[in-house]
Amino acid sequence: MDSNSSRGKRTSLQPMRAAGRQRVEELLEAASDLMAERGYEATTMAEIAARAGAKIGSLYRFFPNKEAVADALVQRHIAVLEDEYAALAKRAATLSPDALADVLIELLVTLHPRVKSLSALMEARTDKMEIRDRARGHAIVGIAAALRVCAPGLEEALARDIAAVVLNTMKVLRGMITKNAPTTPDAPDELRRMHRLYLADRLEPFRRAPDSITDAEP
To answer: What pLDDT, in 10s, does the model give residues 152-173?
Structure first.
């Protein structure tokens, strides 16, 4: 067994002290920046340490290899998604469908810098489909939960279908804003209007309590 394989079985060190936790956050932030900029394969442990302003020994103290750094980043990104969608579900009770549409659109735009290396990690890893499915699954479940809070009569299966449409709309809009998707100057605003109309059409019939709905769409 080569050294890389044996090292890959070692786990990351979980610091107990606040200073250690802060250092780990700095190292992970540096790794996320570099992997988003250059890709997973091109990023080295030495570059991560240098970007974080840390000694290489400090990085290896917490993470035995780059794969361990990647594992920690995936967990960090998934936790961010869980927290943000949980917060969204709490907010949704006070939002109209139009307002919820705007909040959802902005959410993916604001989330992207916090999970910026997730795409690079998914592209590089052998378990990328599992990571992608986890990220998408959390997003769909989180959006569906917010939709059902906003429209209490909405059934879970339909909420997830609508959530999948919303998630794809969010991704297209982010691509337009970042110029990674075909666009024109006013196209993002048009997509926002379409998104509002879609959610208003699908949610309004279910805004009443479930036992009072008699003529809602299936």
So the answer is: 999 999 999 999 999 999 888 8
